[in-house]
Amino acid sequence: MSNRVNEQDKEEPSHFEAKKLDWRGWLKYLALTALIWIGMGFAYKSIHSHRPFRDSVTDATNGIGQLLMTGLYREQWIFWIATNLFSIYLWWGSNLHIQAMYWVYTLNSIVGWYQWTKAVKKA
C-alpha cells in the first residue's frame, strides 16, 4: 500500500462569495415557501395526517433553505432558523432530547447567519 497522494486527490481550499437577496428575491422565495407549505399540507391531509399544515411548514422552510444554500445566499440561515424553531414547537412536550437537538441546530444556524453576513459585507 502506497502512502503517496495523487495530484487529483489534493483538494483546493474552497472559496465562495456569499450573496444577499434583494426584495424581489425575498418576494419570490417567500411565495415559493407558501406554495410548498400549502401543497405539502394538502398532500399530508390526503393521507390523513393529524396536523398536515403544521407538519408541512418545515418541509417548506427546509426546501427553500436548501435552494438558497445552493445559490450561496446568506438568507438560507433565516430559513434554517425558522425550520429549527418550528421543529422545537412541533416536538414541544413530547421529546426533550429532540428539542435539545433542535436548540443546538438553532444556535448553529445563528452562528452561520453571523458568519455569512460578515462574508457578504466583505464581498
Terminus-to-terminus distance = 45 Å
Compute the number of structural domains.
1
- Structural category is mainly alpha
Low-confidence blocks of residues: none
Helix content: 55-70%
The number of E-state strands comes to 0
Overall shape: globular
Kindly estimate the percentage of residues that lie in beta strands according to DSSP: under 5%
Over the alpha carbons, how many angstroms does the gyration radius reach? 18 Å
> Biggest sheet: strands, sense, closure?
none
The overall pLDDT, averaged over residues, is 91
SSE order: HHHH
Please work out how many helical segments DSSP would assign: 4
Topology:
Elements: H1 23-46, H2 52-70, H3 76-91, H4 96-122
Helix pairs in contact: 1-2, 2-3, 3-4
Membrane topology: Multi-pass membrane protein
Family: Belongs to the nicotinamide ribonucleoside (NR) uptake permease (TC 4.B.1) family.
GO molecular function: nicotinamide riboside transmembrane transporter activity
What key phrases describe this protein's structure?
123 residues; Nicotinamide riboside transporter PnuC; single chain; transport; 0% strand; 4 helices; mainly alpha
Describe this structure as you would to a colleague:
With 123 residues, this protein is mostly helical. It has helices at 23-46, 52-70, 76-91, 96-122. The protein is built from four helices and no strands. The longest helix has 27 residues, at 96-122. The model has no long low-confidence stretch (mean pLDDT 91).
